[in-house]
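Re-running GDSL esterase/lipase to confirm reproducibility after the cluster update. Everything else is unchanged from the original entry.
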Amino acid sequence: MVSELAVKILALSLVLGAVAGSIRPSKLLRQVPAAIFVLGNNNYLPGKNIPRADQPYYDFSFFRKKNLMLGVVAGNIRPSKMLQQVPAAAIYVFGDSTLDVGNNNYLPGKNVPRPDRPFYGIDMPGSGKPNGRFSNGYNTADFVAKIMGFMSSPPPYLSLAPSSDNLVLTAMDTGVSYASSGAGILDSTVQYFNATWSKMVASKGFGAVSTLLSRSVFLIGLGGNDLSAFANTQQAQSDVAAFYRILISNYKATITDLYTMGARKYAVINVGLSGCLPVARVLDPTGACSTTRNKLAAGFNDALRSLLAGLAPRLPGLVYSLADSYGIMVDIFADPQASGFTDVSSACCGTGRLGAGGCSPTSTLCANHGQHYFWDGIHPSQRAASLRVQAFYDGPAMYTTPINFKQLVFASGTQ
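Result of re-run:
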């Protein structure tokens, strides 16, 4: 058994070696094969009796670092090899509040939705405080980044925008998150990436940027807000087909615009079971799911699947993985206890019926945060997000097509 002191000494030695070799220490623990990160798998397993380090005060990133150091000490990983195997160069995130890691906290205005108050972040390892995520801890973007080998989710764009140098440095090193609560297909944040790309090219050159982006992952999760807005207007069913065409046309433009700038590897998450969110259930006297909203989401997901399948052969080098958020929610909700959930209809943190009134410092919290699928009236809890991501990364084939996220990470995106 390696002592804690030995682990710390080795970690310090590696950092000093990195400095001597002009290697940024922040890259030491990121640029390694995803297979190295074995600690943390139990956090994704269903069942009440599985031992997990998913409660305060466990720090997921610390245990990952320690596990890597132990691997080096044991002789399984040569330190000289640590910087040579990089599954993904960087990760760039586009989406709504399910992926937002803090951009909305930088937006002005009283009516901007921000998770900047308790009890958001209550289970966040290391702090237990609000952190820009609509979750009790990590969200989907965090778990995707971590399982792909990154130390953490890339930082929010608006935290970096004031300094062009810092923005370019971060974009070239780990990536940037452009996800924002309220964003949709018709209100995309791709224009901010366009501005970042221009600065990257001006600083590092077109060739270097193109090479980096072709080896990076572009995580996209859009559509939920668009469909919700459409459903709220109660438009006629005859308008649905036209609405789908508009959404798919804009989604296509997002994919192709990113492709033109160098993106090749897309991790796309479809729209979930939106009719079963607490905010949708509360509209029904019995608390039942909205069949209309679920059908609207299913129809859009079919169109998105067709779009991606059609784009791939027409855009050389493009590879993608489409994750089925809708399908995994159907399966979990059909048998919640199989995944360790006792409640899949109401919010753990909320007010009013089904907790759909919003999470705030005066809200009532459920007793066991990990047993609720929803943290608030819309967003999955930390544990629900982790289970989803594990399924998308290397879980059952039914939840991703044509490849899973793990295969995408190691796929070769050609320029």
